[in-house]
Design goal:
With about 425 residues, the chain is of the alpha+beta class. Helix content is about 25%, strand content about 25%. Helix 2 packs across helix 3.
């Protein structure tokens, strides 16, 4: 409606719960605006009644009602606006099992509930509207330890554990901002018997993250700015083509499909029935895919092999490298870091992933600003040993560098300022 917030409305309901199911009374919040409310292209391009409406989903949230509370707190509406702003700006959609690392108490208090998982709302089924289908994704507040477990294993597994612990959510996954203990403190057996066993058996379902990351091609001198193969933080950022963007989006979604085959879709994959994997073509896809392809010099569109690469991550992204290696590559899967500050992307692939353009013969390959790195199981095991101190962030001093000269690979963990200001 022309205002600064992405969501048009957030409805707030008093839900009496269900004593028979041990569901306490709570406030229930429902967003309006991520789906197409109008069908006249003012916010979302109308794509028909059979596909997703707008982004295809709305957000919900269930907050435990405090004794004597007569009106719902309004901060969950601000939280929803923040998440919706991310969706509109990035055009990345959410799926059940996704996590959002927020790094701050959701209500700006001193609470341990500082991150979110997303799941299907237990009461609200998908609906068919005149402008497409809408599903309802519920935000579930979690502690840092629970977020890490979801990353290392998978979001759905942790959500199931939260459902079994009444004070941590119960069957309807109601967030209690006053919860002072994690599910692992409430029941210490959950970590060893469920999570550790699940990681060992299933690996991680986290297929990628938005991150502060960059990569340099060390095969060419960095001062050679005219060479299309030299992609440095300080140079003019190059645009990913529409097809590359779609493939990376697909890659990030693939790992969320339980038991899916570890396949990277081919770069020239055509959209099936005009739909992306998870939603209809967005305005960004339709308006920019042609022009962004034209921005890239012809040499960049060709896949090229690199002799030597330097990977750069901030500390939070770097801490996920052991997860990427142990939980993904050792299980024959892939893992993608997509830069939040530009079009740079880094995908690690194992030898079991089909459709990758990195090969055992040429393990480092790039397509524009998208780098793929193929790592053999033997090298992964060695990297895990060398990167062991990434698991102890409290003892970490930046910058930190790891190098494997015979593999011509270097990894640097750098302060956030390097990525926030590319001129550093």
């Amino acid at each position: 409606l022309g205002g600064p917030d992405p969501l048009d409305y957030v409805s707030m309901y008093r839900n009496l719960g269900n004593p028979a199911l041990n569901v306490p009374e709570h406030w229930h919040y429902v967003s309006f605006g991520l789906s197409d409310l109008y069908g006249d292209n003012r916010v979302h391009e109308f794509t028909g009644t059979d596909g997703p409406s707008g982004f295809g989903f709305e957000l919900t949230f269930r907050l435990k009602r405090e004794t004597g509370e007569s009106a719902p707190p309004t901060w969950p509406a601000e939280l929803m606006q923040g998440l919706a702003r991310y969706v509109f700006q990035s055009e990345n959609t959410f799926c059940s099992g996704d996590h959002v690392s927020w790094h701050s108490p959701l209500d700006n208090s001193e609470s341990r509930i500082q991150h979110m998982l997303l799941t299907e709302d237990p009461q609200m089924q998908p609906v068919q509207t005149p402008f497409g289908i809408v599903t309802f994704l519920q935000i579930v507040g979690v502690c840092t330890e629970e977020l890490h477990a979801a990353q290392q294993w998978n979001g759905q597994g942790i959500l199931e554990l939260l459902r079994t612990v009444p004070v941590a959510g119960g069957p309807w996954l109601i967030t209690d901002m006053r919860r002072g203990e994690t599910i692992f403190e409430i029941d210490p057996h959950l970590q060893q018997e469920r999570v550790d066993k699940g990681i060992e058996t299933d690996g991680s379902n986290l297929s990628g993250v938005s991150a502060k990351c960059a990569w340099d091609d060390l095969s060419r001198p960095p001062e050679d700015d005219e060479d299309s193969r030299s992609i440095c933080i300080g140079t003019q950022p190059r645009r990913l083509s529409g097809k590359d963007t779609e493939q990376i989006r697909e890659t990030l979604r693939r790992g969320l499909e339980i038991n899916s085959k570890p396949v990277l879709p081919p770069i020239n994959a055509q959209r099936q029935n005009g739909l992306n994997h998870d939603r209809a073509p967005s305005r960004k896809d339709s308006l920019e895919s042609e022009s962004s392809a034209a921005i890239i010099p012809h040499e960049l569109i060709r896949t090229r092999q690199l002799e030597s690469v330097h990977l750069k991550f901030n500390q939070e992204s770097g801490a996920l490298i052991p997860l990427c290696l142990r939980g993904r590559l050792l299980h024959g899967r892939h893992f993608t870091y997509k830069s939040i500050t530009g079009d740079t992307a880094i995908t690690f692939v194992s030898t079991g992933v089909e459709g990758a353009f990195a090969t055992e013969e040429h393990p480092y390959a790039a397509h524009g600003p998208w780098l793929q790195i193929l790592l053999t199981e033997e090298f992964v095991e060695r990297m895990l040993e060398d990167l062991e101190d990434l698991n102890s962030p409290e003892e970490f001093k930046l910058p930190k560098e790891y190098s494997w000269p015979e593999k011509k690979l270097k990894v640097s963990i750098l302060p956030d300022a390097v990525f926030d200001n590319p001129l550093h």
